[in-house]
């Protein structure tokens, strides 16, 4: 029997046993270079960040890696997102990059190691699914990165961990220094956060516009989550954290990221959503809106108390105040309100005392956090650098009180069960007080009803 011409080939494998392929694919490619994907202002900001890091840790060998994409399943990875310390120090988002800073008198010499793109003429051009340009598209070369960043850039193959290096993730001193330095945002970073927050505000409007359809066509929370995530991908890098869309009895569930429930008229709909800008700075904003357009009296009562708590929290944010002040100011209002409603088994003072905290049954999370490249930014800071520290101009943080009455909470009257309300704003601490960067969204119940109606 005559053999077909492909007899003896193993279809997925192209290589040494196919000289026709090897000879052919090595030739005939035009020159195609692309610039490094980094804006000059971002590179300048990163250079200033490195100077601050150098001054904070003189005489230390510093190594900060971008990381690698995590495995999702089988041989499929999650989309890569560079580590925040690396981005802060380089403005580069390349997978597998490593920044090395060697001490010298008066500072450090920095060098960036990056995977070199595999170009025509190299076997990996066609043979590496991870690095070959034929597989992943054209990528900036090391020279282009060097020009854009103003840094020497060398192949990752040349990288070895230097003696005495503080390696990110393993070195508490480096983590702590980076966490403290990243707490004060410069003008460029504030601009990026403003952009992320502005796109988040329009994302809220995009979601509000889809609520009637989510109800009418029984598309539920999934549709609203997808609406925001598409908006975030279109106007930024994507959502800065898992989008939370909680309707009805899901609203009180703090990390309701399953977003697979229905959306029904009469329910509160809690939306906690943030656009991550292409520079990777993220917003983190929450509003709670009534699905039918109008809060019920019980929902409004809860919202009014959370609004009062929120206003007390906002009023405590100014330079020189302790970070913990806004937390306690907001908590005190919640405790008083819950006490007035007969939900606390003790006095307000007893509840607020360290050994009490009875009100925390209805708000087990904190009232806010620093915000930046990470949604919970600067989390490697020790107590005295974060929770126990004073606020200073340039800090960006969230204020986000809420009340969470779970559907199966037998300590609250039936009309409160299944109501969850959070108001979360992003604030910049200024020289004289603060700016509410997400202030384009109303925080009062009537304002939110009107806002939702305008966009529905
Ligand atoms: N969405 C996370 C947070 O509010 O902290
Ligand atoms: Mn938050
Ligand atoms: Mn949030």
Helix content: 25-40%
CATH architecture assignment name of the largest domain: Alpha-Beta Complex
Number of helices: 13
| Secondary structure: number of strands | 18
Using the CA coordinates, give the radius of gyration.
26 Å
- What ligands does this structure carry? glycine, manganese (II) ion
Which key terms come to mind for this protein?
456 residues; binds manganese (II) ion; four-stranded antiparallel beta sheet; Creatine Amidinohydrolase; alpha+beta; 2 domains; binds glycine; single chain; Creatine Amidinohydrolase, Chain A, domain 1
Structure, explained:
This protein has helices spanning 19-25, 40-56, 84-90, 124-127, 133-136, 142-149, 172-181, 187-216, 220-235, 297-315, 323-340, 348-352, 445-455; strands spanning 61-65, 71-73, 76-77, 98-104, 107-114, 153-155, 165-167, 238-239, 244-247, 268-273, 275-276, 285-290, 368-370, 396-399, 402-405, 419-422, 425-429, 434-436. With 456 residues, the protein is an alpha+beta fold. The protein folds into two domains: 19-182, Creatine Amidinohydrolase, Chain A, domain 1, CATH 3.40.350; 187-455, Creatinase/methionine aminopeptidase superfamily (Creatine Amidinohydrolase, Alpha-Beta Complex), CATH 3.90.230.10. Strands 6-5-4-1-7 form a five-stranded mixed sheet. Strands 13-14-17-18 form a four-stranded antiparallel sheet. A three-stranded antiparallel sheet has the order 9-10-12. Helix 8 packs antiparallel against helix 9 (220-235) and helix 8 packs across helix 13 (445-455). The radius of gyration is 26 Å and the shape is globular. Bound molecules: glycine (GLY) and manganese (II) ion (2 copies). One manganese (II) ion binds at residues 284, 369, 398, 400, 424. The site of one manganese (II) ion (MN) has 5 residues, from loops.
């Amino acid at each position: 029997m005559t053999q077909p011409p492909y007899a003896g080939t193993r279809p997925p494998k192209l290589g040494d046993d196919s000289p026709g392929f090897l000879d052919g694919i090595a030739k005939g490619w035009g020159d195609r270079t692309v610039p490094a994907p980094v804006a000059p202002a971002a590179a300048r900001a990163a250079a200033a960040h490195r100077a601050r890091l150098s001054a904070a840790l003189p005489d230390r060998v510093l190594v900060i890696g971008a990381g690698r994409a995590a495995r999702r399943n089988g041989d499929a990875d999650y989309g890569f997102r560079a580590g925040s310390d690396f981005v802060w120090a380089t403005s580069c988002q390349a997978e597998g990059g490593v920044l090395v800073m060697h001490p010298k008198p008066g500072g450090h010499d920095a060098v960036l190691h990056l995977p070199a793109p595999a170009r025509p003429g190299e076997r990996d051009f066609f043979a590496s699914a991870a690095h070959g340009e034929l597989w992943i598209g054209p990528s900036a070369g090391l020279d282009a990165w060097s020009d854009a960043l103003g840094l020497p850039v060398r192949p990752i193959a040349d990288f070895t961990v230097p003696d005495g290096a503080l390696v990110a993730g393993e070195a508490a001193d480096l983590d702590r220094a980076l966490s403290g330095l990243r707490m004060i945002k410069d003008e460029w970073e504030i601009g990026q956060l403003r952009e992320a927050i502005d796109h988040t505000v329009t994302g809220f409007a995009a979601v509000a516009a889809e609520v009637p359809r989510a109800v009418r066509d029984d598309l539920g929370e999934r549709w609203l989550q997808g609406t925001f995530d598409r908006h975030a991908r279109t106007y930024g890098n994507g959502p800065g954290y898992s989008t939370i869309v909680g309707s009805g009895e899901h609203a009180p569930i703090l990390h309701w990221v399953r977003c697979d429930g229905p959306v029904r008229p009469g329910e509160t709909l809690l939306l906690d959503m943030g656009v991550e800008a292409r520079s990777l700075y993220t917003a983190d904003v929450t509003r709670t809106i009534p699905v039918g357009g109008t809060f019920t009296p019980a929902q409004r009562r809860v919202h009014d108390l959370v609004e009062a708590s929120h206003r007390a929290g906002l009023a405590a944010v100014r330079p020189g105040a302790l970070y913990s002040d806004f937390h306690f100011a907001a908590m005190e209002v919640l405790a008083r309100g819950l006490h007035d409603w007969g939900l606390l088994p003790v006095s307000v003072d007893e509840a607020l005392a360290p050994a009490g905290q009875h009100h925390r049954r209805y708000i087990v999370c904190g009232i806010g956090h620093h915000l930046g490249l990470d949604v919970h930014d600067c989390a490697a800071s020790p107590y005295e650098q974060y929770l126990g520290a004073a606020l200073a101009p340039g800090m960006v943080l969230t204020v986000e009180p809420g009340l969470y009455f779970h559907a199966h909470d037998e300590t609250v009257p039936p009309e409160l069960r299944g109501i969850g309300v959070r108001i979360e704003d992003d604030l910049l601490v200024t020289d004289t007080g603060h700016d509410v960067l997400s202030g384009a969204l109303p925080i009062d119940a009537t304002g939110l009803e009107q806002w939702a109606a305008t966009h529905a």
